[in-house]
Structure formats: structure tokens, C-alpha cells
Amino acid sequence: MGGDATACTAIGALVGVSVDVEHPDVVSGTIEVCWDDRCSTPALELRPSTKAGETTCTGTAPDDSCSARLEPTGGVQGFAAVQDLPAEQVTATLRLLDQSGSLLVDRHITLHPEMVYPNGPDCPAGGPQAGISVDPHGAVSER
Fold this sequence. Notes:
Strand content: over 45%
Number of strands: 10
Structural class: mainly beta
Order of helices and strands: EEEEEEEEEE
Distance between the termini: 31 Å
Shape: flat
């Protein structure tokens, strides 16, 4: 337990860098993350992104249920697990490819990983995470 009445579960958090890509032609990519005199080249598997679509509910009472269909966004997303990622400035090189293997994005970016708290701020941190966004035109930014 953390604090007076806060229940802290054993839930963890992945340590690494998430990548969200809106560029419609990207199908695969690589990432290299460096800090101090060390670099890591973790696997980056990109999967189709989805969002919640139309929702339906059985009613408005607390015991009623709702559902939503997932709809594709046209983008892809992935997470690169980076063992020992520090909660301090790092650099990343992101390379994204199209179906034929042609390079669409080749960008070096500074990231600022931050600790995440899966049980909330009154419980221990789960580890540092950073995020990268790529817009439909290939512009890369930290998120």
C-alpha cells in the first residue's frame, strides 16, 4: 500500500518507446535509442492502429453495459521495449519503410522519457516511457 488508503497493485509498465504513425504508406521500421555511451536497437513491430467507433449501450443504469466497435485509422503503431531506458534525455533514430522496403522516414530525434505510474501518482512508478508521433506527411515529433 502507498499512502493511507491507496491500494497499489503489482501491475507493471513496459519500459521503452511507443511509436504512432499516421503516414499511410508505412508498414515497417526500426529504432535505435542511445544515451550516455550506450545504444539499444530493440524490435519495433508495427501493427494497424484502431480507434473506438460507434458505441451502443443497453441502458443508462450503473449495471448496464456499453460496447464499441474498433475501426482502423489507416496508421500503424508499435512499442519498442528498451531495457534500462533512463528517465532522462535520450536520442533515437527512427527509420520507417513502405511495402517495397523504400525508406520513407529517417529521423534523429531527442526524447525525454518520463516515469509512468500505472496505479496512479500515490503508488510506485512502473518505469520510464517515451513516445514518438509521425504525421501523415512524415514529420516526426516527441509526444
